[in-house]
Amino acid sequence: MSKNINAVVYEKHGNPADVLHVKSRPWPTPTSGEAVVKMCAAPINPADLNQIEGKYPVRPELPATPGFEGAGVVVDLGAGVKGLTSGALVILPHNIGTWRDALAVKAEDLVVVPEEIEPVHAAMLKINPMTAWRLLHDYVDLEQEDWLIQNAANSAVGRAVIQIAREPGYRTVNVVRRSELIDELRAEGGNAVIVDGENLRDEVKNATGGAPIRLGLNAVGGESALRLANCLAFGGTLVSFGAMSLQPLKIPTGLLIFKDLRFRGIWINKWYDNATPAQRMDAFQSLFEMAKRGLLKTKVEKAYPLSEAKAAVAHAAQGKRSGKIIFEFGE
Length: 331
Prior knowledge:
The chain is an alpha/beta fold. The protein has two domains: 4-124 and 298-328, Quinone Oxidoreductase, Chain A, domain 1 (Alpha-Beta Complex); 128-268, 3-Layer(aba) Sandwich (Rossmann fold), CATH 3.40.50.720. Helices cover 30% and strands 24% of the residues. The protein contains twelve helices and 15 strands. The strands form three sheets. Strands 3, 4, 5, 6, 7, 14 and 15 form a seven-stranded mixed beta sheet that branches. A six-stranded parallel beta sheet has the order 10-9-8-11-12-13, with helices on both faces. Strands 1-2 form a two-stranded antiparallel sheet. Helix 4 packs across helix 5 (156-166) and helix 7 runs parallel beside helix 8. The radius of gyration is 21 Å and the shape is globular.
């Protein structure tokens, strides 16, 4: 085994392609209660880029290694580790920095993945599918055939919402910016797919037969979020988990007075920190069951080696991608 590993590092906040570089580090040694994990795959999420830019609520001590998400294989165990075996595929915690060849982690913070799930898919279950799961289960008690509406429906969370909603028979209105996504999202199970615009409310009414919509999921903010709020029924809830437009949410007082809407937010890292290990495993079990059946596979546009970190983050920052940019770790 190599005596050194490569790790992506930044010493100051700024444009990721400018401030990131790859450094050699000693191969990690586990202390008591730790496991050494050799990384298999790690995605580049918007939150990763925001943290490198210094625009994220959590700022690690610098120099730091980015990466909120990833999966790898246990290759070494420290003293006193129970219930974990060498060779197990595991999902990493979000506060550790996954963009490196290998790392030592507290064994109790690792989530063991069933063998049927490929590492590259396991690496992307924790943030986007878990967010989708919580969005559908924590805010409004939906019943079979109830409608919900979401913008950014072609995002990783949006696609996971479509797939997870199908199981209990919830129906989705999926708002997108590009008409070429309509057939694709319908094929994935979206009940209605509508291009965002001034007439959204009328188009949604037509698509749903005027059915009440009690849950809206917002990843865009600005005007798009307001159009979503206008589609909700009296007493409906809009849950925000992203702000792709970089525009604030401006809510007319009338929507509060006459529609009594509720506005909520979710930060999946905070949910994860506050959940008990049993609650976490419970949620993961549901995701694992779906992943075993070939669902919840986050689309990948391109995989890069760690040595091409600058090119990878520049690619990840581009809009109109067809999937995630990820790091894959070779032998």
